[in-house]
Structure prediction request, 754 residues.
Amino acid sequence: MEMVNITIDTRKIQVPKNYTILEAARAANIAIPTLCFLKEINEIGACRMCVVEVKGARALQAACVYPVSEGLEIYTQSPAVREARKVTLELILSNHDKKCLTCVRSSNCELQQLSEDLNIKGLRFEGEAKLLPLDEFSPSIVRDPNKCVLCRRCVSMCKNVQTVSAIDTMERGFNTTVTCAFNKSLNDVSCTMCGQCIAVCPVGALREKDDTDKVWAALANPDLHVVVQTAPAVRVALGEEFGMPIGSRVTSNMIASLRRLGFKKVFDTDTAADLTIMEEGTELLHRIKEGGKLPLITSCSPGWIKFCEHNYPEFLENLSSCKSPHEMFGAVLKSYYAEKMGIDPAKIFVVSIMPCTAKKYEAQRPELSSTGYADVDVVLTTRELARMIKEAGIDFTELPERHFDDPMGEASGAGVIFGATGGVMEAALRTVAEILEGKSIDNIEYNAVRGVEGIKEATVEAGGLKIKAAVAHGLGNARKLLDKINAGEAEYHFIEIMGCPGGCVNGGGQPIQPSTVRSWVDLRAERAKAIYEEDRELPIRKSHENPRVKALYEEYFEKPGSHKAHKLLHTHYTKRAKYPEE
Amino acid sequence: MSENKCCCCGTAEACVDERDQKLQEIIAKYKDVRGALIPVLHEAQEVYGYLPMSVQKKISEGLDVPLAEIYGVVTFYTQFSLKPKGKYKINVCMGTACYVKGSGIILDKLKEKLGIEVGECTEDGLFSLDACRCIGACGLAPVITINEDVHGRLNPDDVEGIIESYTKTENK
Prediction:
């Protein structure tokens, strides 16, 4: 790497030639405040919070987009710089609702943090402020334009990364807003509800629809049997909400907290993930052997499903008919479990803790109610669970060791890795390869499908069959892969698609890390590491070896793909319009 | 009357709206040209007179540009309109010179006379009203344009007569 010599605040340092001033300052341990900047997602120099003085330059320059060069002299703390940043921030604040006390992002807000960091003691500008209606029609996402600072991070995420383009910047000047075309609600456009916009919002302008009140009410209702299940990605991220390092595994603390909250049973969605593999693996082999529609594409990610329904209806028949694991679990709880425990399914209230906002939308799909009742009653994100734990006054770090409840308590490592990109594929291959070979296989780590590369490919040979597989994560990569298939440039048997970049570990319902962390730490990789650690430590790592799943088939479903399994564990999809109605 | 009959010519044959055909030609001309969105919007507005959602959807589909992005561009530039324009398009100059010479009062008078707000069109489709940036005729301030006609050095009392002169032409 070619280096250049620069001077920052009279300190002489050497930095790589391709650095921006912001990166160079970071290397010198000098913090420059930013607001619109999010590395690789939004580098547009729009908000002017990061201005610095560059010797010889006509005006102050935005550090986040200004490239270093040999001999560059930079001042990050001169009076002119400090005053310019303060004026900019105060102007942004003059058109912000400033209702921090009741804001969901209070204490995790980049604007609030800037106000503290820049020592803002009063607001000099009291001008007109926007007062616009909230968009609360989506079951997943609330948009509050009165908190929006117009940084455009959400727009870039939605348009450039996810290629959904549900939102964009409209109008100009003071009237500028981030909204949908023709000011439609997120609920009426082709929004996939993935929530990645929330994950990158520096303030509370985008947030999940908070459903904690519904859960508190259910927990307080003595007539209900309230149970909860948690997705694999939650346990490797929840700790962040309590100040723990990224990638901390808090499975036991999470279970203990849920018990204290009053849930009758705490189940592991991973067990249902094992069930999904049994059904999906069977479906794959059936389609390959019987000449069914290929490639088979996974259906666990509701953001991906909605994206497909809006944009690629020609692939709907390729989607696995399997419900997503937590929906399968819901159906099992309101059928098998209800019968076994002798509880009226009408009285069972199923809460899913998910790293996902799209699951809120998924849960209210009318087709996902096989028993006559919604499979899942309420979906909470990882963040909402953290809020409930805090509200209940539970000391999250000091809790006794706890394990998931039976009769669906034990999950395999295959179920755990569902939380990271490539995980569903790997879990399926572990089972499918053994079925085809007819014997146990020891080497079960499929490294080709792991990692954060956008599109991954692997060919697996087993039992004389060659299975060509592909994995895409993030909807932009999904689009690339599907376009390639449509153009006849690629052919596969089996594809895993997860709507969020990195898969569920980086889902739209996960703890939000500010740009100062997210820009420099790969959350996807750090959280995935914890997932794979958990997998390695489990005694059972293949779905078909899970004794709970075996028992479920013996006692109830008979075999994968049976009539009963189809009734309770499978679903169908709907073609949806690409554009909103007039 | 059969539902299949065309609304404009009444024939049983499905007739393609001439304007839609023109739009498809415009899109074809610019397809795969980088930065083609703004010229396409301009030409589409010339064809339809404005840019309703149905037109923006067709452009989105044709150019493979997201609808939200198109709507963002249309609402950013004042020359694009989401609403139909009148036969007589009134523009009131709000440039600095016109403004200090009272174009705001002229605009209010026009609103009152026509019974519409800025950006709207009268029910009979005759007049639409817009405020615009400096048109470079500061010597005539305050100035309004009605289609290609320029009316300068106005005072609020002139408004009534000007509007009536156009209404009279129509009624002849």
Notes: The first strand of chain B starts at residue 88 and ends at 93. The radius of gyration of chain B is 19 Å. Chain B has two domains: 18-76, 88-171. Residues 88-171 of chain B form a domain with the Glutaredoxin fold (CATH 3.40.30.10).
